[in-house]
Design goal:
This protein is α/β, with parallel strands linked by helices and 366 residues long. It has twelve helices and 13 strands. The longest helix is centred in the middle third of the chain and has 25 residues, at 227-251. Residues 5-193 form the Ketopantoate reductase N-terminal domain.
Length: 366
């Protein structure tokens, strides 16, 4: 039996993936010895208390469930393995109150990371010695640049570096309690190998246990992409995020309102032109990519399609600003600014919105 899948980061997306994996096991007839665990990694004791109060399960709701009062869950997933990180000082107290595993040293073969991008290296640090060249890490996050940071700070030796996967999930999920999810909109999960391990153009097979498990979940609608395909998908998502997210945060508006004034339209066009120029310079023009999938016209159509489909949504960046939290701007517009400087290309307007978001983060709202 495989050692199972570990999940680091239990925000909306982490809970959604955990639910999908475990629920798929519960609804599939499998011999007990063949069921590999899904382990939730908790970084603080308070999460254990929340876990206990919610019956050690993840509850699943749809918008229709919320029409009744109180809301009635559609389903739930239980039977998770739970591990508390950085808990040595509280070990005795915790062991007396919860079945959580403390200070496990066993290797981690399959890890899904859904933390905020800026928290990734700190979150991985306590378990880095349990990860090695035989490990697979799937980064399900916004933005680009995290894998380079993780390699530099945690896995500088390429010979002992895990295989990195990038994932993009377009499902709409939010929460109403620490271990509940409301599945507001369906959308696929795309994943593929990235980094130096990803040489070659063929789509990866499901030889990795993690890829196989994710692909078997009907809820997740997982597609395995080639290294080239996942990079292209990441860059398209980057352009979308680099326009919709900061504009909604700067103008304090819903996604569908980012084009509602001449000022917003003008800034949108300038951001799009800068982003498109940078990305086309980063990519080889094979199969006329510059004139087709990554032309300004094609990228504009993508941005406008997402803004229309999510018109009533509040972007994650605006949610972070409203809650006084740090945003992921460094890995979105900040990444484009760094690439523009490296390539000698203008990034004036991405720098402007980057600076504005940093000001909002600091609480200096005018």
């Amino acid at each position: 039996m495989e050692s199972g899948i570990y999940i680091l980061g239990l925000g909306n997306l982490g809970k959604y993936v955990a639910f999908a994996l475990r629920r798929n096991q519960q609804t599939t007839v499998t011999a007990p010895r063949q069921v590999s665990p899904v382990t939730l990694l908790f970084h603080r004791k308070g999460l254990l208390e929340d876990w206990e109060s919610e019956d050690r399960s993840i509850r699943y709701y749809t918008p229709e469930c919320l029409k009744s009062q109180p809301p009635v869950e559609k389903s739930r997933a239980s039977g998770f393995r739970v591990e508390l990180l950085n808990a040595t000082a509280e070990k005795h107290d915790i062991e007396n109150h919860t079945p959580a595993i403390i200070d496990d040293k066993s290797p981690i073969r399959h890890l899904i990371v859904t933390t905020k991008t800026y928290a990734t290296t700190a979150a991985l640090a306590p378990i880095k010695d349990r990860l090695n060249k035989d490990s697979h890490i799937l980064f399900l996050q916004n933005g680009i640049g995290v894998t380079d940071e993780v390699s530099h700070k945690l896995f500088p030796d390429p010979g002992n570096r895990p295989t990195y996967w990038a994932g993009i999930c377009s499902a709409g999920v939010y929460s109403m309690s620490p271990f509940s999810i409301i599945h507001a909109g369906r959308g696929p999960l795309m994943m593929g190998v990235v980094g130096t391990q990803s040489a070659g153009g063929a789509p990866p097979t499901a030889e990795a246990h993690m890829a196989s498990r994710l692909s078997n979940s009907r809820l997740l609608q997982t597609s395995l992409l080639s290294p080239e395909q996942i990079v292209h998908a990441q860059l398209k998502k980057l352009v979308i995020n680099a326009i919709i997210n900061p504009l909604t945060a700067c103008f304090n508006c819903k996604n569908g309102q980012v084009f509602e004034s001449d000022e917003r339209q003008a800034l949108y066009r300038l951001l799009l032109q800068e982003a498109g120029t940078i990305i086309r310079e980063m990519l080889p023009n094979s199969d006329n990519l510059h004139e087709t999938a990554f032309s300004d016209r094609a990228l504009s159509a993508l941005v406008e399609e997402v803004a229309e489909k999510t018109a009533n949504n509040t972007s994650s960046m605006l949610q972070d600003v409203q809650a006084g939290r740090r945003t992921e701007i460094d890995y979105i517009n900040g990444y484009l600014v760094l690439q523009g400087r490296r390539l000698g290309l203008p990034t004036t307007h991405h720098q402007v919105v980057y600076n504005r978001i940093k000001t909002l983060e600091a609480g200096h709202v005018d």
